[in-house]
């Protein structure tokens, strides 16, 4: 089958790899109909996240179940599903409390990073390919209603649950002013998710005009990063935002987020921080009584409620899609998403 393979920094190629196939009774084979490129893939693409090359990329995929192992009880051949970006059993201590990113059975395995973030499962393949073998398929796959098309559904794999996780962790209250740092697909999903909690205003911060423009269309007040502090203070009586969601994954953005929140407020970081440590403004956090939340989003546990919101029309992530490319054009998709050229935002790949 064809798949998008990571060969090293800024080097991805679509090539033939061994066909995905079921190996355990709890696996399902999913024929991918839509996949997407994520900001997290860029960390690998930039070699910021050290990853041994030679693996199939992609953790955001939608497709049709082609075959199920004999231990799979809820899925049928021909069923359309979204595959959660990380594998979860649905039954362990962590899964039972919704903290599926810490699943004990999968070890938090994420698709699309080969052996690098494979938890307990080894290389589990990636979604930017023609097919994917999904472990613990009864829970990791989520059956889709007809009302949710592939393009909306692909956001359920990671983007919407991650934006929602950022908003949930922010403990947003009705009437709050929320600032979102970063208007990539994750930040834009956080803008949408924050609105679900009754925000008075969402301020969206980035430096890229076309991304800020989309944030505005999604109902946020856009601001160029260098002007963000002044605008946020101006909108909040000089106090700062009640909640700041960091959706960048860089030390500088985290520092800006910590500075932009009001005393007693919450900074919720969903950006991926690949370095083991960096300076954290603990003195500022102490003196200003801040709450700081960070973590890998719990993807599968939030899919059902987000799917209902998409199905009802309350959430529509499709405006975030900028490109629909054939799988063969994945390298071009990576180039434009990375370079922020061609107004690239969410790039979908259609095998
Ligand atoms: P992206 O690269 O498209 O978006 C990042 C955006 O941040 C860009 O638009 C960039 O211009 C902007 N930016 C950079 N520095 C900034 C600053 N100082 N202030 C404001 N904006 C700034 O990526 P994405 O797909 O939106 O992902 C965003 C982050 O979320 C990445 O770090 C990704 O790895 C992470 N992520 C985390 C999880 C999780 O489970 N926590 C899941 C998925 C993605
Ligand atoms: Zn992702
Ligand atoms: Zn589990």
Mean pLDDT: 97
Q: Which residue ranges are poorly predicted, with pLDDT under 50 across at least 5 consecutive positions? A: none
Number of helices: 12
Kindly provide the radius of gyration, computed on alpha-carbon positions and rounded to a whole number of angstroms: 19 Å
Structural class: alpha/beta
Principal-axes shape call: globular
Helical amount: 25-40%
Gap between N and C termini: 10 Å
Count all strands and give the number: 16
Order of helices and strands: EEEHEEEHEHEHHEHEHEHEHEHEHEHE
Largest sheet, in brief, is: 7 strands, mixed
Strand content: 25-35%
- Bound heterogens, unique: nicotinamide-adenine-dinucleotide, zinc ion
Q: Gist?
A:
The chain is of the alpha/beta class and 351 residues long. It is built from twelve helices and 16 strands.
Structure commentary:
The protein has 351 residues and is α/β, with parallel strands linked by helices. It contains twelve helices and 16 strands. Strand 1 and strand 2 form a beta hairpin. Helix 5 packs across helix 6 and helix 5 crosses helix 11. The N and C termini lie close together (10 Å). The relative contact order is 0.16. The structure holds nicotinamide-adenine-dinucleotide (NAD) and zinc ion (2 copies). Nicotinamide-adenine-dinucleotide binds next to helix 1, helix 6, strand 10 and helix 9.
Helix and strand layout, with pairings?
Layout: E1 2-8, E2 11-16, E3 28-37, H1 39-45, E4 55-56, E5 61-68, E6 80-83, H2 93-96, E7 131-134, H3 137-140, E8 141-143, H4 150-153, H5 159-170, E9 177-181, H6 185-195, E10 201-206, H7 209-217, E11 221-224, H8 228-235, E12 241-246, H9 251-260, E13 261-269, H10 282-287, E14 291-294, H11 299-311, E15 321-326, H12 330-339, E16 346-350
Parallel strand pairs: 9-10, 9-12, 10-11, 12-13, 13-14, 15-16
Antiparallel strand pairs: 1-2, 1-4, 3-5, 3-7, 3-16, 5-6, 6-8
Helix pairs in contact: 5-6, 5-11
Bound molecules: nicotinamide-adenine-dinucleotide (NAD) and zinc ion (2 copies).
């Amino acid at each position: 089958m064809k798949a998008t393979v990571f060969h090293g920094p800024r080097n991805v190629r679509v090539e033939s790899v061994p066909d995905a196939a079921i190996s355990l009774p709890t696996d399902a084979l999913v024929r991918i109909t839509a996949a997407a490129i994520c900001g997290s893939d860029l960390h690998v693409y930039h070699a910021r996240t050290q990853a041994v090359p030679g693996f199939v990329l992609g953790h955001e995929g939608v497709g049709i179940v082609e075959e199920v192992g004999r231990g799979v009880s809820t899925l049928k051949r021909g069923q359309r599903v979204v595959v959660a970006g990380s594998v979860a059993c649905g039954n362990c201590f962590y899964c039972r409390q919704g903290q599926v990113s810490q699943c004990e059975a999968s070890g938090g395995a994420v698709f699309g990073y080969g052996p690098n973030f494979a938890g307990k499962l080894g290389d589990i393949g990636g979604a930017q390919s023609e097919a994917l073998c999904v472990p613990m398929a009864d829970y990791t796959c989520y059956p889709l209603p007809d009302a949710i098309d592939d393009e909306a559904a692909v956001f359920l794999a990671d983007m919407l649950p991650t934006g929602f996780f950022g908003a949930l962790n922010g403990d947003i209250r009705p009437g709050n002013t929320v600032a979102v740092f970063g208007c990539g697909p994750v930040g834009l999903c956080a803008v949408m998710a924050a609105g679900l909690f009754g925000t008075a205003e969402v301020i969206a911060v980035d430096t890229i005009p076309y991304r800020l423009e989309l944030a505005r269309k999604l109902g946020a007040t856009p601001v160029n990063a260098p002007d963000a502090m002044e605008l946020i203070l101006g909108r909040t009586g000089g106090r700062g935002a009640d909640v700041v969601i960091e959706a960048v994954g860089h030390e500088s953005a985290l520092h800006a987020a910590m500075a932009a929140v009001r005393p007693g407020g919450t900074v919720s970081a969903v950006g991926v921080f690949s370095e083991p440590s960096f300076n954290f403004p603990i003195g500022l956090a102490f003196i200003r009584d801040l709450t700081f939340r960070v973590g890998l989003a719990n993807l599968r546990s939030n899919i059902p409620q987000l799917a209902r919101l998409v199905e009802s029309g309350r959430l529509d992530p499709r405006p975030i899609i900028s490109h629909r490319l054939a799988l063969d054009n994945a390298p071009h998709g990576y180039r434009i998403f990375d370079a922020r050229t061609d107004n690239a935002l969410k790039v979908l790949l259609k095998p």
